[in-house]
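Sequence, please.
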């Protein structure tokens, strides 16, 4: 990049992310709260209108700012995209886990950052990585809240990003994985709505960060997703694979806890929500919920083994 390109910036205000409550919660909760406190009547309607106006104003301002973003052309830069993935053979998954497990063991760090510090570092490196490709620094909020009503609708969700306001909530302590979870949601905040794109940008930004805590999170995510594919959604098989892949105790525990935190997929609510979300993803031009693991790992496989990419794959 030239000096001028490095200096290009787009600032998204994300004002709603600084509100004391999630903006969508305000829209939904204002009339309910008014009804509980003062009963049915015009006050509740007025409160809802005010909340909706504030929400819409913030969302419209962010939408206007986002029009200046130069988005990454994934097919051009990485030789892979949602509709262009080379399936990863099963043996390649096995080899990848056996290659990455010793590296995770050797570079293991117990260091934990506060969520606020994690978010700040993640945002900095995600901004840097995107700018290294587009020549444009997309400046956004680094705020993260720990509650949203969306958690009640999907209890197994780890986090969520409101695509209109950019508001991000992380619902659970995901341990070693937290930097990647936050980076995924921040990728949405910076204008990358597809889940596969968010997975890939989060991984590449953290892997190239030079920060041991962030790099560890990215590699844990890659191994975790590979093991999920190998287990084919079977929880018992996943446990067996984790126990047998040679990871040190702390990493094995992190993998198993992350599997539980993300939902086992056996409850009626979880199954229903996954089906609904899968349909929503397909409707918006994605491959479905498999983009989180099969798509993600196949993207990296295509990128690292193809010859069409403009970017150079980082060391796994």
């Amino acid at each position: 990049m030239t000096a001028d390109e490095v200096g290009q910036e787009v600032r998204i205000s994300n004002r709603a992310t600084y509100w004391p409550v999630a903006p969508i919660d305000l829209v939904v909760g204002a009339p309910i709260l008014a009804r509980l406190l003062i009963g049915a009547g015009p006050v509740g309607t007025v409160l809802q209108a005010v909340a909706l106006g504030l929400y819409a104003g913030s969302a419209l301002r962010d939408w206007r700012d986002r029009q200046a973003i130069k988005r990454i052309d994934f097919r051009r830069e990485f030789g892979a995209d949602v509709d262009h993935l080379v399936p990863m053979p099963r043996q390649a998954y096995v080899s990848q886990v056996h290659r990455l497990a010793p590296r995770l063991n050797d570079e293991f760090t117990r260091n934990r950052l506060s969520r606020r510090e994690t978010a700040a570092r993640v945002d900095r490196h995600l901004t840097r990585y995107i700018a290294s490709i587009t020549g444009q620094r997309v400046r956004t909020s680094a705020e993260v809240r720990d509650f949203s009503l969306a958690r009640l609708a999907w209890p197994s969700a780890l986090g969520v990003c409101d695509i209109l306001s950019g508001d991000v909530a992380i619902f659970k302590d995901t341990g070693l994985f937290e930097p990647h979870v936050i980076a995924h949601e921040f990728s949405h905040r910076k204008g990358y709505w597809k889940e596969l794109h968010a997975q890939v940008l989060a991984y590449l930004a953290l892997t190239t960060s030079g920060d041991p805590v962030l790099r560890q999170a990215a590699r844990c995510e890659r191994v975790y997703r590979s093991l999920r594919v190998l287990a084919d959604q079977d929880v018992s098989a996943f446990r067996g694979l984790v126990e047998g892949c040679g990871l040190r105790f702390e990493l094995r525990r992190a993998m198993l806890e992350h599997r539980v935190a993300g939902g086992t997929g056996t409850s009626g609510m979880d199954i229903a929500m996954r089906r609904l979300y899968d349909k929503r993803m397909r409707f918006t031009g994605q491959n479905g919920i498999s983009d989180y693991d099969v798509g993600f790992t196949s993207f990296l496989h295509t990128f690292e083994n193809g010859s069409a990419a403009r970017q150079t794959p980082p060391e796994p």
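The first strand starts at residue 8 and ends at 11.
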